[in-house]
Amino acid sequence: MEEVSFDFDQHREQSIDDFREVRGLYESLAETTERILRDTLNAANVSTHSIQARTKTVDSFGNKASKPSSANPLEPKYANPLEEITDLSAARIITYLPGTISDVCSCIESEFSILEKIDKADELMDEGKFGYHSVHFLVTLSEERTRLSEYKRFTGLVFEIQVRTILQHAWAEMEHDIQYKSASVIPAVIRRRFIALAGMLEIADREFQALQEDDQALRVQARKSVKSGNFSNVEITPDALKTYLDGKLGSDARQTDVSYEICAEYLNHLGFTNLQQLDNCLKPYNDDSVCRALWGSRQGQITRFESVLLASMGHIYIERHPWSKDDYWKKAFPEWLQLIVEAEIIIGSYDPLLDIGNQKH
């Protein structure tokens, strides 16, 4: 008896018709889940590069629904595509660093009912394939959420969520254009380059994570040193400068991180390398008195700080300041210096480049 071949075309068309009827629901699910993810991660103060959700296109679904089975190419891989294809709607969360992935996963696990959680790197390695580190979830909205009328229509609908770093995402995007998926069939020259590239991406991810951790450790140590009055080993960075000025002149919530970045940059131009030099420069002056001589009243932290710098360094400040060539500042700096003189405040000539004992080596 002649075997009847499976009609893949008909299967594809029927699957597409079925999907069209429910696609609008899955689009709403994608939008809802993206909002839940954003709100949850924001509430947990978890920083990400991007959060994007999408629903499969009709053509993409049809192509996937009509794939033949690897076990029997005469049969479809998905006999019941709407039930068996689990990424009808999916979200992708891209983090900057590997360390954030576990935080994202914790948020997902707290907000959704988890049907499946797979680390794709382990899975691909077991299959002898090249791949990328990526955690994939199959989830549904929690029972608590679907009790609410606005979410009830999503009860039982499966949603896929992928979590990976931005470098892992770069690998995944490149992989779409790679024809060889198994290491055993890749030409030796190409295989070596694949291995090198995969290693480079993994090392880069680890190094970025280590850099962040080391930077945070340095910030913490610098803050401790500043608070204990040990300034000589503290390099002038925006964070260290803020800690120092908060202690020296009082904190000022009006100042932004950008303000301290700008100050740290021009302090470098002026010749400062550590906070001990800065402390030596500011110590002889009363910031309130200098500020009132210039502005007639007490000003904010940064203004008082800059006023004292000008008084203590005098013409050295004007000569080295990166803005001194600008027409406005070229005129303003000498005028301000004159106002300090008229207030009978002695103009200094502090030069951090000559403060040899406090140079950072």
Strand line-up in the sheet with most strands: 1-2-5-4-3
Strand elements, count = 5
Distance between the termini: 90 Å
**Number of helical segments?**
15
Q: If classified by CATH, what would the architecture of the largest domain be?
A: 2-Layer Sandwich
In words, what does this structure look like?
The protein is α+β, with helices and mostly antiparallel strands. The protein has two domains: 8-182, Beta Polymerase, domain 2 (2-Layer Sandwich), CATH 3.30.460.10; 231-358, no CATH class. It has 15 helices and five strands. The chain has a five-stranded mixed β-sheet. α8 packs parallel to α9 (238-249). The mean pLDDT is 87.
Question: Quick gist of this model?
Answer:
The protein is of the alpha+beta class and 361 residues long.
SSE layout and pairings?
Layout: H1 8-43, E1 50-55, H2 58-65, H3 81-84, E2 89-95, H4 98-111, E3 112-119, H5 120-126, E4 135-141, H6 143-146, E5 159-165, H7 166-175, H8 188-227, H9 238-249, H10 257-270, H11 275-282, H12 287-295, H13 301-313, H14 315-320, H15 327-342
Parallel strand pairs: 2-5
Antiparallel strand pairs: 1-2, 3-4, 4-5
